Amino acid sequence: MPYWREVVDVRGIPSFIGYGELDEFDNVPVSASVERFESELEGEGLTVRVYPDTGHSLMDEALMKERTYKLVDGLLRDLDGWIGSNLVR
Question: What is the number of domains present in the chain?
Answer without folding.
Answer: 1
